[in-house]
Amino acid sequence: MEEREIPAEDSIKVVCRFRPLNDSEEKAGSKFIVKFPSGQEENCISIAGKVYLFDKVFKPNATQEKVYNEAAKSIVSDVLAGYNGTIFAYGQTSSGKTHTMEGVIGDPSKQGIIPRIVNDIFNHIYAMEENLEFHIKVSYFEIYMDKIRDLLDVSKVNLSVHEDKNRVPYVKGATERFVSSPEEVFESIEEGKSNRHIAVTNMNEHSSRSHSVFLINVKQENLENQKKLSGKLYLVDLAGSEKVSKTGAEGTVLDEAKNINKSLSALGNVISALADGNKTHIPYRDSKLTRILQESLGGNARTTIVICCSPASFNESETKSTLEFGKRAKTVKNVVCVNEELTAEEWKRRYEKEKEKVARLRGKVEKLECELNRWRGGETVKIEEQINLVDDATTPVAAMEDSIIETNNIGPMPATPALMIGSTMSSEERQKLEQEREKLYQQLDEKDEEINQHSQYVEKLKDQILEQDELIASTRRDYEALQGEMNRIQQENESAKEEVKEVLQALEELAVNYDQKSQEVDAKNKEMESLSEELMQKQTSLNTTASELQQLKDMSTHQKKRISDMLTNLLKELGEIGATIGGEGADLKISNDAAKLEEEFTVARLYISRMKSEVTNLTQRLHELEGSQQDSNRKVTEYERDLSDCRLLISQHEARMKSLQESMREAENKKRTLEESIDALREECAKLKAAEQVSTASESEKKEAAQLRAALEQQVDQLRDVHQKQVAALRDEIAEKQQLINDIKDSNQKLTLTQQQLQADYEKVKSEETEKSNKLQELISTNERREQARKDLKGLEDTVAKELQTLHNLRKLFVQDLQARIKKAITSDDNEEDGGSLAQKQKISFLENNLDQLTKVHKQLVRDNADLRCELPKLEKRLRATMERVKALESALKEAKEGAMRDRKRYQYEVDRIKEAVRQKNLARRGPVAQIAKPIRAGQHHAIISGGNAVRLNPKVVNNEDTQKRKSIIVGGNKDEC
Ligand code: ADP
Ligand code: MG
């Protein structure tokens, strides 16, 4: 450790990485224009014949692991040993910067430098001595348009860069997250990345125009000797280094690009100035990026620049400029020393040492002054007497370095080469200048802070404006909705008002009508009263007539009785008729009871109607039967005609048969005669034979006899032949006749059979006919009966009607009589007063008519009045309801307005409250309140203690467990709080 205390000059390490040709380049037919000269070193490349030398050159096929091992790994131990470290990637967009720095976190083969470094740091810690305590915190921010935006707290949008007491620049107010395991670091990175994504629309474009800075701050304390070391590691993914012209940017994009280029050109300028070596002023303050990287460039940091390039011919010029940048950066020298906080004892020791050194140097200065005086006095000092400057280790440069150590022991100091380069200025002037510059820087810082505050305030105000806008929009919407509602309500109100108006008008009309009617009613009432008085008088006379009426009533009851008797008789008859027709007449019981008369009468009517329907049925049937009778008659005549034909035929056949029998008899006779003649001839023949026998003597006789015989024989033969012929003919004739007879007999038989059948049919038809005629006769008789009954009924009805008519007449007569009597009574009354009875009568009738009309009108009016009365409360109710509705709507409107106001106030209050809370939170986050330290123990694998719960263990408990192991990593600022 001791030798590390001496600051070492260390040039910035520059490694160059070429990515493979990408798809678009391959498609565009770009050529691979970079050559890697063969050799073991792998540290040079040539492009277009120009060779560049770097600390390391990675070919496109170089793995992430190789890049990490050879370019970044050594930094881990440096950081843990208390040095500052920086790795940043420089190159045009899509040259592989993010791939190199970040890669795919969590993928063992594709993860880049940051995740590997994080894992390595923790692994180192776990493998270190036990008495070491670590505090690790991370910050993540991006620089865009020269504004620093905290990626772990989106509300911090414009952070400023300040210098700490050791004049080391740092980002003031940046969120520092204490971490105790790689997972927590990755979580922070993820959070930062997601915040970065949320803030912008096009991430690719944004990432190519902004620098992202990930800072790991490692503090360690040796618990044995209280020695404290701290190392800061900046991991920077720069914006694309391409020229603006290439991107074809315009407008704001161009401004943006220029701004980015500004910070990158500031970086280039810083590098150039540092590379120059003669420049006294390094323009760190030109941009925030260079300000942050001040320590990393020419300061107290081990810095590695990874320049990322594309090997494609298309990107040749950019690749070349990137390589030039790397070349320049390679010449920059940093002065590196350990950031150590010394203990009091060490300070004391160092003080003694320095005191000694000062005394020695003072003696030497005195000696030198003596020598100088001698020289100035014109003396020549011999070489032996001259003070040996080479011998002495305390050369001015060494002294200066010592002084640097001193300052570094307090804390790292901006070891600008300008300070180390000897200047011709007097020390006083320099001091003055230094102080002035100091002051100016301080002012600058203050201004920065102010700007930061302002911009944060602006941001807040912007947020507020947005919120307000939203609120306004919502209230406007509400207002519009309310306005709509109000319009609707007003419309409703209008319509309701109109309705009310109409109703009122109707009411008025009604009231007017009512008044008129009531007046009329009054008038009529008066008339009525006078009339009723008259009526009263009449009433008394009426009472007298009432008794007469009673008498008449008695009479009428008597009449009624008579009528009922008559009706019962009639009904009885009807019942009988019913009995004869329907056989159900038994049901009809004639009641003498006058009360039941009506009922019975209706029953009788029913019977009559039934009978009517039956009669119609019967007539229908009669018609049918008549039709069928005609049919059968027709059939009978047809059959008769057939029968007569048959008879004729039979008689013909019989005649023929007779003639045939006669001819047969003739033939028989003929036969007999012929047989007789044959017998006669045979007799003659026998006689002749006997004669022959007798007269055999005489020859002559013989001869004569022979001749005769011959003649006779001849005659006989002839006769026989004829006879035979005749017999044969007769026989044929007989056979013929027989045949004919047989035929005729057959036909006769047939005919007789048919005749018989016809006869039977005829009989049947006849019997049917008779039957039908019988039936018809019956029906006709029943019909006649019915007809009779109907006629009777009609007669009955007529008589009933007549009776009723007479009854009516009687009633009329009675009424007339009554009226006459009343009139008589009245006239008799009137006659007493004055003689004008006719006029009086007329008047009375007129009055009566009037009264009738009036009563009618009165009734109508009363009805109208009642109707109106009924309607009036309804209308009033409606009116009241509409009024109420209007009122309710108005109140609702008022309420809605008030509610809107209230809501608005509430929103305002809520917004204020939230803002206050956010402000408080921010203050709390930023404020000096100590962070909760998360102790992690060295010598244990992080997996055991990683994770929120394990980390939040009570440190005392942890300490009890490992009392011997006094080695721990404290992540956080305040150990005591653990
Ligand atoms: P930059 O950050 O410089 O704009 P990126 O790191 O995003 O570029 O790289 C652009 C693309 O090229 C990414 O898809 C990345 O995976 C790929 N890439 C970059 N370098 C390499 C490499 N060495 N090997 C393979 N792919 C790479
Ligand atoms: Mg990138």
How would you describe this protein?
This protein is of the alpha+beta class and 978 residues long. It has 20 helices and 19 strands. The chain has helices at residues 23-27, 64-80, 97-101, 113-127, 182-199, 203-209, 244-247, 251-276, 288-292, 316-330, 344-376, 396-410, 417-420, 427-582, 597-694, 699-833, 837-926, 942-945, 948-951, 955-961, and strands at 8-11, 13-18, 34-35, 44-47, 50-53, 56-58, 85-91, 132-144, 147-150, 160-163, 169-172, 177-178, 211-222, 228-237, 302-309, 333-336, 340-341, 934-936, 969-971. Strands 2, 6, 7, 8, 9, 12, 13, 14, 15 and 17 form a 10-stranded mixed beta sheet that branches. Strands 3-4-5 form a 3-stranded antiparallel beta sheet, covered by helices on one side. The chain has a two-stranded antiparallel ribbon with strand order 1-16. Strand 4 and strand 5 (50-53) form a beta hairpin. Helix 2 packs across helix 4 (113-127), helix 8 runs parallel beside helix 10 and helix 14 (427-582) runs antiparallel to helix 17 (837-926). Mean pLDDT is 80; it is low at 1-6, 392-423, 926-933 and 940-978. The site of magnesium ion has 4 residues, from helix 3. Adenosine-5'-diphosphate binds next to helix 3.
